[in-house]
Amino acid sequence: MSNVVEARMLSKWYGQVIGLNNFSIDVPKGITGIVGPNGAGKSTFFKLLTGNIRTNVGHLRVLGEEPWQNPSLLAKIGFCPDYDFLPPDLDGREYLRFVAGLHGMEGLKTAERVDEVLKIVNMSKDADRSMGGYSKGMRQRIKIAGALLHDPELLLLDEPLTGTDPLIRKEIIDLVKDLNKVHGHDVIVSSHVLHEIERMTHQVALIYKGRSVASGDLSEIRRLMSDHPHNIVLEGRGLVPLAQTLLTKPYTSSIELRPDRLGMYVRVDRPEEFFDSLPELVTETGCELERVESLDDDLESVFRYLVG
Amino acid sequence: MRMSLNVIGLRTVAAFSARKLLMNRRWMLVMLLGALIALVMGYAATADGANMDFASDMMGILLLMFLLPVLSLIYGASMIRNEMDDRSIVQVITAPLDRRISYLGYYIGLVVVLCLLITVVTAIGGLAFLAFSPEREGGAQLIVTFIALQYLGVLVYSALFLLLGTLMRQPIYLGLLYVFIWEGFIGSVPGSIGNLTIRHQLQVIASEMTDYGSVALTNGDWTMSMLALVALTVAMVVAGAFVLRREEIS
Question: A258, A278 in Cβ contact below 8 A?
Fold first, then answer.
């Protein structure tokens, strides 16, 4: 089995709302990042993978099996959802014992395994404290520990970095990398921030409005980001000569000069060429630039571009 | 392997769901109800002619007709529904445990907690009556009888309200209608329609268990009532287990 997940033409809708629409993806072994803005369908995808919901249309295989109404598959999957569900009155160790019981684990070996996963997620020190007093980062780590406890082949981490501070984010990113490299778990991790995923893996799938718009190596995604048309705002003095010169360049599609002549919007087809030539053009035309900013240098713009 | 998973999983769901119910702040409401029942029972015992018949009638009204269905509704209807609403059920449904087994675990947890609460409240109410009543003979036996009878009621009402909570987003409204209109009002109507209530079947069984009070005069075949309640309980638990298995939980 080369892919841990194979989805073909999946569709899932909730009444009038579409969660996934003709969604196809192959997820290879290793770490794969699912990237998309909020509401793109990432959580719906995870719920389908764990069999919490079923597809309306399409074909889905997780570790070679159909997930809906297949509890034995869940012994091979560890799921860490994006929302908070931890019972505040339990301490971390009690919670892990509860999870262990749900996986049919008990006894001395289970206690040892609980200690082991607590160590992996760096929560040994706080394991006997009530979870109601845990910070966001601690809650994320204990959730990951719960997902890891039964030593699953595949870990599903839905937005594990949401709401965490930069220090915790780094710890969780390092943990996710270790879970694959050191402990051998295949991991599917989602985020709405590309650069966070980039620090964990180069294998990425972009999802937007319920559709998989691109997947593969991150360098490909990066190329798409730099190649798609950009709207760039320029502000400063003496912009008219610059606008006239830019209009002669093949990469410029259009220019809109503001009435006050202190700003303009330039639409370019090849942003890299524009940015490379800009310093020279500024010197040539003698304008004084105060602001240069691309309005489309973000993931949302790439998504809009990719789906037309 | 599968057997061991099911047994440990069942025990885990039952234990943790029972613990969750007991940790819930609703116990304050139960204590309030318990205190109210103790107050009413204690006060009633001071009336002229208070005896075990009177105690039996009081227990029938306060415990069998009111406390038992209301507590079962409060705890049963919200048990799985609350976990679905706050999504804490995710831990259970993403474990390799068959959801039907998980449902049975929830049911057992609910029954254990309700039996515990019913025992405490009935004992407090019964003892309050005995403390102030001039006649006490047979009192302890009456308390035990009503506790046992309510255990049977807990089995049926828990199955009903847990099923409602699994089926519906707002089970409490239908549950209240059921308790107060069907069990309360229809159950009081003389004739065969009144026999179609859980309360009536419990009263028929009570008539076999005690000689005190008006319940002892209830007509009916207690074995048929027992069979009907057991069959109803099994049917509702099985139905609930299948509903949970097929339910999409997002």
Answer: no
Closest CA to A65 of A56, A53, A77: A77
Helix (H), strand (E) at residue A14: strand A3-14
Please report, for chain B, the start and end positions of each structural domain, with discontinuous segments joined by +: 2-246
Nearest chain A Cα distance for residue B49, angstroms: 49
**Span A276-284, average pLDDT:** 88
% residues pLDDT > 90 (chain B): 77
Confidence of residue A297 (pLDDT cuts 50, 70, 90): low
Continuous H helices in B24-138: 27-45, 52-59, 68-85, 90-93, 99-132
Select the residue of A47, A83, A102 nearest B95 (Cβ to Cβ): A102
- The verdict on A132 touching B (C-beta cutoff 8 Å) is no
For the entire predicted model, the pTM comes to 0.86
Q: Is-contact B34 B126, C-beta < 8 A? A: no
Mean pLDDT of B82-106: 95
Residue B236: HSE in the Cβ half-sphere, 13 Å Cα cutoff: 21
Name the pairing type of β-strands A57-62 and A3-14: antiparallel
Indicate whether A306 pLDDT > 70.
no
Provide the H-helix boundaries in chain A.
42-49, 92-102, 108-120, 136-148, 166-181, 194-198, 218-227, 239-247, 271-285, 299-306
Note whether A52 contacts B248, CB cutoff 8 Å: yes
